Each structure stands twice: as C-alpha cells, then as structure tokens.
Amino acid sequence: MKNIRKKALFIIDNVFYKGAFLKEELLILQNSDIDKRDYKLISNITRGVIQNRTLIDYIINNNSKVRFKKIHKIILTILEMGIYQIFFLDRVPDYSIINESVKLANIYGNKGSVGFVNGLLRSVLRKKDEIVKDEFGLSELKNSDINKYLSIYYSHPQFYVDAVLKERGREFTEDLLLANNTEPPFTIRVNTLFVNREELMEKLNEKGYILKKTVLSKFGIIVENPDNIFSTEEFEKGFFYVQDEASILVSEILNPERDFKILDLCAAPGGKSASMAMLMDNMGEIISCDISKKKISKINENIKRLGIKNIKTAVNDAQVFNEDFKEKFDSVLVDAPCSGLGLYRKKPEIKWNRSYSDVLSLKEIQKDILNNASKYVKKGGAIIYSTCTLTREENEEVIYEFLSENKEFSLEKINNSDIAKLYPSTDNTDGFSIAKIKR
Ligand SMILES: C[S@@+](CC[C@H](N)C(=O)[O-])C[C@H]1O[C@@H](n2cnc3c(N)ncnc32)[C@H](O)[C@@H]1O
C-alpha cells in the first residue's frame, strides 16, 4: 500500500474530529512530493466522504450489526471511505476496496474491528444493486417525509434543507443541494491595473490553460485546469487574484467613483478591497480593516503583489464604534463574518461544523457591525452589506431590523431585487447575498 488511503483517512479524521479544513489539508499534501494521480485519488475520496457523509452513514447504519453510535471513530471513517468507493467511484475494483479497508482496520483497530469492517463491506457489496435500486433505502421516506429524505439523500444539515424548502420549494431546493455537491469552478479576477481580460486570457491560454469568461462579472475568468497556476509569471506579477464571481460582483455593485473614500470593515484577505482599488484606478482612498492582525498582513501581501497604492490597512473591531470614522466615507463595505453556508460546494466541511445556533449568534454580530457602519457613511452615501451565506437570519432579518430602526436608510434595488441572491445552482457562483443600503 502506498499509504494513499492512510493519508485520506488522516485527512478525513482531522476534518471531522479535529477542526481541520479540507482545502488546507489538501494543500499541504499537494506541496509534498506526492504523485499527481495519488493526489487526485486522495482529494476525490476525502472530498467525497465529507460531501456525502449523511448518506454514507445512513448506509452504514442500515447494514451494521454494531449500533452506529458504538462504532469507534477511526473504524467509522474507514467504513465511510469504503462505502464512498463502492457507490461513488467506479474505477476502484471491489476486491481492492475490501483489501485496503481491511488493511487500515488491521493497523488502527483490533481483531474484532477487522472482522466487522470486512463483513460489513462485503455484505454491502453483495447487496449493491438492490441498495441502489431502493435509492439507498430511502424510497419510502421520499414519499413520507421529503425534508428528511432530501437531507439524507443529498447529505445536508436538516435546518438548511428545511429553510430552503420553505422559502424556495422542492425543485429549487433539489437543484441547489445537487449543485452544492459538485466541484466549484476555479475563478480568477483579472487585475486591470496591469492587463485587460483578453490579454490575460491570451497569455494564460498560451501556457495551456483552458479558460472561459464569467457571465455576470466582466472581470472574471474560469480556469478549467488550474494546476500550477500559482507558479506562473502572470500570478507573480499580480495580473490576477483568485476570487469567486459573486465576490467580484460585490465591488461592482458598490460601484466606487475614482475619488471615493471607502471603508471596508471586514476586509481580510482583501479580495473585495483589491477589486474596489482596481475599479478606482488606484485613485481615491480605501481603509481596509479587520479584527485579526494576522489576517491584515495577508491583505498587505495581496495589495503589494497586485500593485495597489490606494489602500491603507488597520486593525479595527467593527463591533466597537470608532469615532475617527464618523461620517467620513462615501461608501462602507460590510462583508460580514457569517456562517458561510453559501460555501458548501467549496468547503464541504462547513456542512458539519456550523450549526443553526452559530447562525443566530452571527446575526447579533452582524447587527452590531451594520449599526456601526451606518454611523461611518456620509449623508447620500451607501453601505454594501454582503455575506457568503443565504440564511434569512443573517441577511433579510439583519437588514430589515436595521431599516426599521434607522429611517434615514433605505434599500436600493439590485437588478430589481431588494437583496441580490446568488446560488451555485442558478449562477454557478458561491452562495451570496448582497444589499445596497443608501443613506
Ligand atoms: C467574509 S470575511 C471577509 C472577506 C473579505 N472581504 C474579502 O473579500 O477578501 C470576514 C472577515 O471579517 C473579519 N472579522 C470578524 N469579526 C470582525 C470584527 N468584529 N471586526 C472586524 N472584522 C471582523 C474576519 O477576520 C474575516 O477576515
């Protein structure tokens, strides 16, 4: 064994039980001297297990002689990897799935657990066609409890499914859940301080990159094969920044003029500040703040590479009123800390490490930040309030509660909507909410 599955096991274990982030774990692996094909398989298995956890566990539970809660965590992860390979990967032969899983159980379990893993996986393999035909044992639930069915079948937290279903109905919900389980596009934003979109596409195209222009933003490029893109001369020279299309749109909606004075209250790592700086042609002034000093250095690093000269950075807690900012800004951007549920596609572990109570406590922080922002914007100016989450609590509720207490402010429509919402399913972007609040 080339330790491929052992590495996958460690990553999943770190993500599920030790608070690690999949993307960071995979980055460490990618930067080691690992074979490209091995990396692809590890990335596939880890992402797949994390993404499809509820359904995989449902299958394990239905086929286990041991009570689910009693299965030791490491043995459960071995089983999850096995089940994922059986139902979702057709390239791995059955005998190899069993062999590799049993080897892992031998290393990390006892004699009993080796027999348990071997027995459960063999039994599932024997019944595979039957299980698939019965929609993984969910065909009955599909008719009796659609909320529960969708949550298990598409492996999404129940509170999330319930909320989307209530607001958008069955078809929209199912499309969204499905999209959340796909691979996100790799999108970059051209830095027009140095090149235009066509020039950059030509340069990257010559290096073999397959590219497509984004539809909603005029600055985005989707890269189909982003391998080694950070080693290119174009990256070094600051010709682009990796940024989701929805995130680019936030700055386009803010639409800064060249002489604007702008405050970005939650700015790190600086994606939206940098795109505003670009739209302002390096003129005017942007104060980019964040609560985290460490993350401020990330902004500084990014603006240096991107050739930005009109951004000043500062550590500032947006929940605390800052007299120095009072009525000083033409626009204030609140790209609020949020539950990030719009990022399920990009960061599948968010499905399992954010709960509904997180949503509620974030709402309180967001209300404080929006309240302070309203004191920093000049009369006639605007606040842009954006989040990478789609919950009503963190968007509609924060905004409408603010508006009911602050009559001087009102929403300016974005494409005929009070609050613009972008979805992986309909827009092929991260899930995002954007509102423009005029004073
Ligand atoms: C969604 S991220 C911002 C992303 C950034 N606008 C961009 O486009 O690259 C939210 C940021 O808010 C910061 N943050 C959290 N609580 C804060 C607070 N009380 N005051 C200021 N920043 C805060 C976090 O450190 C995080 O960097």
Automatic annotation (TrEMBL):
GO terms for cellular component: cytoplasm. PROSITE patterns: SAM_MT_RSMB_NOP. S-adenosyl-L-methionine binds at C266, A267, A268, P269, G270, G271, K272, D290, D317, D335. Pfam families: Methyltr_RsmB-F, NusB, RsmF-B_ferredox. It catalyses: cytidine(967) in 16S rRNA + S-adenosyl-L-methionine = 5-methylcytidine(967) in 16S rRNA + S-adenosyl-L-homocysteine + H(+). InterPro entries: MeTrfase_RsmB-F_NOP2_cat, MeTrfase_RsmB-F_NOP2_dom, Nop2p, NusB-like_sf, NusB_RsmB_TIM44, RCMT, rRNA_ssu_MeTfrase_B, RsmB-like_ferredoxin. It is found in: Cytoplasm. It is an enzyme of class 2 (transferase). GO terms for biological process: regulation of DNA-templated transcription. Signal peptide: none annotated. It comes from the Bacteria. Belongs to the class I-like SAM-binding methyltransferase superfamily. RsmB/NOP family. Specifically methylates the cytosine at position 967 (m5C967) of 16S rRNA. This is 16S rRNA (cytosine(967)-C(5))-methyltransferase. It comes from Anaerosphaera aminiphila DSM 21120.
